[in-house]
Amino acid sequence: MHKFGVVFPGQGSQKQGMLIELADARPIIADTFREASGVLGFDLLAVVRDNPDGRLDETQITQPALLTASVALWRLWLEEKGPLPELLAGHSLGEYSALVCAGVIGFEQAVDAVHKRGNYMQDAVPAGTGAMAAIIGLEDDVIAKICADAGQGDEIVSPANFNAPGQTVIAGSAAAVERAVTALKEAGAKRALPLNVSVPSHCSLMREAADRLGQDLAKLTFKRPEIPVVQNINGHVSKDPDTIRENLLKQLYMPVQWVDSIGCMRDFGIGKVVECGPGKVLSGLIRRIERNMDCYTIEDGDSLAGAREAIQQG
Fold first, then answer.
1. CA-to-CA distance for 82 and 85, rounded, in angstroms?
2. CA 121/CA 252 separation, integer angstroms
3. For residue 105, which of 120, 119, 88 has the smallest C-alpha distance?
4. CATH architecture of the domain covering 4-124+205-313
5. 161-191: pLDDT as tens digits
6. Confidence of residue 196 (pLDDT cuts 50, 70, 90)
7. 11, 34, 227, 265: most buried by Cβ count inside 10 Å?
8. Is 92 noted as a catalytic residue in this protein?
C-alpha cells in the first residue's frame, strides 16, 4: 500500500444537509453530532439539517459544524477499518480537525474552542468592515507588493491563503481590499473575486481574536500527535505540543501556506490523499499543486467505501 495522507476542509465547504442521511444510517455520525451539541448547548444536527435564518454560514456555527462533520467521518473511517494515514493536514479551520484526529486535543475541547474562535473573529472586525478576495493568475510576490501599496493607515490588506499556484486569497479592511482588487486586475490578474465571508481571516486584523483565543487554548492539554500533522503557517510537521499550540494561534493572523503543506506531504512520500469532510475544495487545490497525487473524497457512505478500497489496493 502506498503512503497516503488525510486532509480536512475549512470554511466554505459547509452545506445544508451535510451528513444528514449518513447520520440516520450510522449511529457514530449522529453520536458525534450529539457530543458536539452537548458542548454548544443547541442541536447542531438540526441546524445543519434546517439551516434556520442561514445560521450555518455564521462563522461561530460554521466552525464547529465543519469540525464535527470531519471528525464524524474520520470516526466512521476507523469503524469501517480504514487504514491509518502517514500524515494529516487541514486547511485553516481544518487544522483543528486534523489535531483532534491525531489525538493532540480532545474533540469536545476543540468544539468549544472553534465556537469561541468564530465569536472572537466576528467581534474583532465589525460586519462589513473586513473583506477577502480570491486572486487568480498572478505571482505571489506581485500580489504581496500590490497589497502593501494598497494599505493606508489602519486599512490593511495582505495575502491570506496561498492555495495553489496562481490562486491566492487576500484579506483585510474592506476599503483596502477593494483598492487591491482594482490594482491587481490592472496588473493582469485573470480574476479577482470578492468572497462571501463575514470575517477577514489570516491577516493582522485577527490579532485581537488570537489574543482572546490564546487564553482559552492555554487552559487545554495538548498532547504529542499520534499521527504527524502538517501545520498551516509553515507547511512543517511539529511533534512538540507547545509549538503546535503556538502555531495554531498564529494561524489566525498569518497566511495559510497550503502549497507548502502539500509539498511537505509530497516530501513525505505521500502519493494518495483522502479529503475527509464535506465537499471537494481541497482535492481541486491539490490537483493543481501536485498533479501526480491521487485524491479521494469521503462525505457519504459510497465515497468512503470507494476511498477505502482505492487506498487498500495501493
1. 9
2. 9
3. 88
4. 3-Layer(aba) Sandwich (3.40)
5. 999 999 999 999 999 999 999 999 999 999 9
6. confident
7. 265
8. yes
Q: pLDDT per residue over 291-314, tens digit each?
A: 999 999 999 989 999 999 999 987
Q: Indicate which residue of 202, 238, 261, 283 is catalytic.
A: 202
CATH 3.30.70.250 positions along the chain are 130-197
Mean pLDDT of the 123-145 span: 95
Q: Is 202 a catalytic residue?
A: yes
Architecture, CATH, for domain 130-197: 2-Layer Sandwich (3.30)
The answer, as to whether pTM is greater than 0.85, is: yes
